[in-house]
Write a structure and sequence with these properties.
heterodimer, A: about 110 residues, mainly beta, seven-stranded mixed beta sheet, four-stranded antiparallel beta sheet, 11 strands, about 0% helix, B: about 110 residues, six-stranded mixed beta sheet, five-stranded antiparallel beta sheet, about 60% strand
Amino acid sequence: NAGVTQTPKFQVLKTGQSMTLQCAQDMNHEYMSWYRQDPGMGLRLIHYSVGAGITDQGEVPNGYNVSRSTTEDFPLRLLSAAPSQTSVYFCASSSRRFMNTEAFFGQGTRLTVV
Amino acid sequence: ELKVEQNPLFLSMQEGKNYTIYCNYSTTSDRLYWYRQDPGKSLESLFVLLSNGAVKQEGRLMASLDTKARLSTLHITAAVHDLSATYFCAVGFRDDKIIFGKGTRLHILP
């Protein structure tokens, strides 16, 4: 019973490098989202998806791309990393059909851009 | 603009005392969540509230929702040290965005 799986758990990038943070869920959830967590800022929504083939921007989308080709996977791409993207990233999934259920979170990816 | 405001942002309290965390939001919502986060960990779901007047309780924590006032509260009864953590409310808006408050860092002194 894996739930939401994020990889990697830790990553150090140099400024200007690109990378993809992976997120997979095995609960057949329609809704998936990415957040970043910075001290004193709570969690801020980057991008979200309500189903395969559908994505939309959240509160802080600049510098990030997403795609949703399958229900299970929702990767987050950093095209050209900047120090301001140093953060902890969380992926979440939830059911839209059963709205009384919680959103499940991955274990997080701690990203440092130097 | 979608806004979720929590207060207080930091709370230090003695064991055995009661206190309430408040969560206000800016516009009509479908659902409201409360989460707990321990340092260095992911988020743990506490409650999901859907309707006006909803009240849920688990141990020393009780959450309520007033959709007319756009307000949810998380009440802590007779706090114990194990409840020390950061608590977040998150609001599901009708455009499918789920927006978090900044969190309340709760420190319970033995």
